[in-house]
Amino acid sequence: QVQPVESGGGLAQAGGSLRLSCAASGRAFPAYCLGWFRQVPGKEREFVAAISWSGTNTVYADSVKGRFTISRDNAKNTVYMQMNSLKPEDTAVYYCAADQLGSSWIASTARRAGNYHYWGQGTQVTVSS
Predict the structure, then answer these.
(1) 97 pairs with which residues across the strands?
(2) Is 57 helix (H, G, I), strand (E, B) or coil?
(3) pLDDT tens digits, residue range 10-21?
(4) What are the Cα distances from residue 67, in Å, to 59, 73, 83, 120?
(5) CA distances (Å), 68 to each of 18, 91, 113, in order?
(6) Cα separation of the two ends of the chain
(7) What are phi and psi of 13, to 5 degrees?
(8) Which positions ≥6 away from 27 have C-beta within 8 Å?
(9) Cα–Cα distance for residue pair 33/116, rounded to 1 Å
(10) pLDDT single digits (tens) 88-125
(11) Other beta carbons less than 10 A from residue 87's beta carbon
């Protein structure tokens, strides 16, 4: 099992940058795919980005492609998301999620929140215009 814990949220201006981190306890961290999701009040949780076990494969939501970059450091049990060119519509609570997601990377599987068993508590990102 892993327990994700997010950090790095905060306030940024439009066009600015933030980097989110997700530290996950557990020796089996390299066996887990990691995903970032976000949610605003009254809306469903939305997929943002995901990364495979070794970091070889990634997938992004169209809304963040080219602006956000997900990466991981298995030696530090940490996944990162660098967020550049932030927009007010990026304002949300961002959640880190982990799951083994089977034995082969399937991007559509990694996009679905229901496929992840382990979730962090979330970190607020607010982008002002």
Answers:
(1) 35, 119
(2) coil
(3) 999 999 999 999
(4) 13, 20, 6, 23
(5) 10, 14, 19
(6) 40
(7) -85, 155
(8) none
(9) 9
(10) 999 999 999 999 998 899 999 999 999 999 999 999 99
(11) 14
- 70-76: Cβ within 8 A, 24+ apart: 70/34, 70/36, 72/34, 74/29, 74/30, 76/23
Joined tokens for residue 61:
């939501």
The amino acid that residue 106 corresponds to is: I
Structure tokens at 20: 């989110």
> Would you place residue 26 in the very low, low, confident or very high pLDDT band (cuts 50, 70, 90)?
confident
- Over the Cα atoms of the chain, what is R_g? 14
Strand partners, 79: 22, 72
The encoded tokens of residue 96 equal 């880190």
Q: Do residues 28 and 34 make contact, with C-beta atoms less than 8 angstroms apart?
A: no
∠ Cα 83 85 86 (to 5°) = 70
